[in-house]
Structure prediction request, 102 residues.
Amino acid sequence: MPKEQILTRLRKIEGQVRGLQRMISEDRDCEAVLTQLMAARAALDKTALSIAGEHLDFCVDGLIDQPDSRTRILRTMELFLKLSPSVSEIEPSEPTVEPESE
Prediction:
């Protein structure tokens, strides 16, 4: 993704965050605030993964024959794992209900 597109995305995210600040100061509904927070986070995640993909294309491509290729590839894999949401963040688990004791 070209640098200008990334900057445009980040400016939109900045606007979302300013909107969130305004929502909080206006005591807006919690559900609306949380929805906007999730949208801002998703936009940041998408931007981060795009940048990481560029890193993968630029930095890792052609490393196979280089002596430190394994280390650099593993480091890139760790980066992707840190950026990707955990399963618990994607699908909230069902709340556990304790049986009533007699």
Observations:
- The first helix runs from residue 3 to 25.
